[in-house]
């Protein structure tokens, strides 16, 4: 069957085809399914929470909470439907659940506060209770729409608030008495103060009036003196301006007289200058006339002579140009001949160089072929000798006449040498007694010197110095 919930209600459907539960405003309830209707409208819960402050003072906290499921949170509605859908929202079970949460959180919070803090900070206390209770109600899907904490009430036998009220009343009464006495004092003092201020202000005004009158009188005199001084200054200025105007007029008259005299002198000088210029022009014209006359007399003669000389000069110039053209033509031909000879010589040298290059190229090719042939020869010879390098070297030296050449060079080295062999002795006398032995040795050395000098002279051609002695002449 088809079910529709009202504006503040939801359908909670469970059963076949639904894994957990289904929440909807309207839906078909099929066979094998069951449904329940939950009301989301909030409910007011009134409590009188008994608590104890940090000073161990008990009191009663009347409070009214407006609580209901959160209508704008799908998850909260599911929690409420799952946990509290079977209970009426006005049932004792729900009320005890909410009351237990509120009393527990309130007592815990109040136990950490003094009575003065609870009494003076009602707003902060309310917000703190609201936040802590809301945290606990979230697990049931409930929401606190409003919380109102009433005036704190004494527990019978503990009249803290009554005594506090009496204290406040007494303090207010005493303060009122003090205020009345202070008001009377202020009235009496104020009256005397106003009378004194009136007299002081009157005297002050009289003194200020006299001062102002004196100031005004002095200012009047100052203004009068000032006006007189300004009038005198103005009169002096006018007199100075008149004197200045008279002086300027006199200066202008003198200037005009001077200009008239200068103009008269300039006129006289201008007339004289004009006469001099006219005289100069007359003399210039006379000179020009004389010059033209002389030109006319000598022009014809000079023209004839100039024409004759010009013709002669032109003839000489023509001859010189022709001679120069002939020389230039001859030198041009000589240059062409030299260029042709140079080209022929260059061609001949180029051909000779090409021939020499070809010969060198062929010679190099021949050397290459010769080297290849010698390589083949040496390789064949080495193979024939069984790879014996020493035998091949001896064969090549013998075949090339190396040993004969060595013998010839050695023979030429000793050819023409005439070695001289000198043999001398220091005597073969037998040595006598010990006394003459030393003398005999010295005599032997002296006997050895002449043959030594003779040998040196024969071998090198050098003679000993005169102080050492002279050699006997050869027979």
Automatic annotation (TrEMBL):
Residues 8-184 form the Band domain. GO terms for cellular component: caveola. Keywords: Cell membrane, Coiled coil, Membrane. Pfam families: Band_7. It is a lipid-anchor. It is found in: Cell membrane; Membrane, Caveola. The keyword Coiled coil applies. Gene3D superfamilies: Band 7 domain. Belongs to the band 7/mec-2 family. Flotillin subfamily. PANTHER family: FLOTILLIN-LIKE PROTEIN 1-RELATED (PTHR13806:SF31), FLOTILLIN-RELATED (PTHR13806). This is Flotillin-like.
């Amino acid at each position: 069957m088809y079910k529709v919930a009202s504006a503040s209600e939801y359908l909670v459907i469970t059963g076949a085809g639904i894994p957990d539960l289904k929440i909807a405003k309207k839906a078909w309830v099929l066979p094998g399914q069951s449904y329940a209707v939950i009301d989301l409208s909030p409910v007011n819960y009134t409590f009188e929470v008994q608590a104890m402050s940090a000073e161990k003072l008990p009191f009663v906290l009347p409070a009214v909470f407006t609580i209901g499921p959160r209508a704008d949170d799908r998850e909260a509605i599911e929690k409420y439907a799952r946990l509290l859908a079977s209970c009426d929202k006005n049932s004792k079970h729900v009320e005890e659940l909410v009351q237990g949460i509120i009393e527990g959180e309130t007592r815990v919070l109040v136990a950490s506060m003094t009575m003065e803090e609870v009494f003076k900070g009602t707003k902060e206390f309310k917000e703190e209770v609201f936040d802590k209770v809301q945290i606990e109600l979230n697990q049931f899907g409930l929401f606190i729409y409003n919380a109102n904490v009433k005036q704190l009430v004494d527990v019978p036998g503990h009249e803290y608030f009554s005594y506090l009220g009496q204290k406040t009343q007494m303090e207010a009464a005493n303060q009122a008495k003090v205020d009345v006495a202070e008001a009377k004092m202020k009235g009496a003092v104020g009256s005397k103060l106003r009378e004194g201020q009136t007299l002081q202000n009157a005297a002050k005004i009289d003194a200020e009036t006299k001062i102002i009158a004196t100031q005004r009188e002095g200012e009047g005199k100052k203004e009068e003196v000032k006006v007189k001084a300004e009038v005198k200054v103005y009169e002096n200025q006018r007199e100075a301006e008149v004197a200045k105007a008279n002086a300027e007029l006199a200066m202008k008259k003198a200037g005009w007289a001077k200009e008239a005299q200068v103009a008269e002198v300039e006129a006289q000088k201008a007339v004289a200058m004009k006469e001099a210029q006219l005289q100069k022009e007359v003399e210039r014209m006379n000179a020009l006339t004389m010059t033209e006359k002389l030109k006319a007399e000598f022009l014809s003669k000079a023209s004839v002579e100039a024409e004759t000389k010009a013709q002669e000069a032109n003839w000489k110039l023509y001859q010189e140009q022709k001679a120069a053209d002939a020389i230039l033509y001859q030198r041009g031909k000589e240059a062409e001949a030299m260029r042709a000879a140079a080209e022929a010589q260059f061609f001949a040298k180029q051909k000779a160089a090409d021939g020499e290059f070809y010969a060198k190229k062929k010679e190099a090719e021949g050397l290459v072929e010769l080297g290849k042939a010698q390589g083949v020869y040496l390789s064949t010879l080495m193979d024939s000798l069984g790879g014996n390098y020493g035998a091949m070297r001896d064969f090549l030296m013998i075949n090339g006449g190396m040993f004969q050449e060595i013998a010839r060079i050695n023979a030429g080295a000793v050819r023409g040498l005439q070695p001289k062999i000198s043999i001398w002795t220091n005597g073969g006398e037998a040595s006598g007694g010990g006394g003459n032995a030393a003398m005999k040795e010295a005599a032997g050395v002296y006997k050895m010197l002449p043959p030594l000098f003779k040998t040196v002279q024969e071998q090198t051609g050098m003679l000993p110095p005169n102080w050492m002695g002279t050699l006997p002449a050869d027979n």
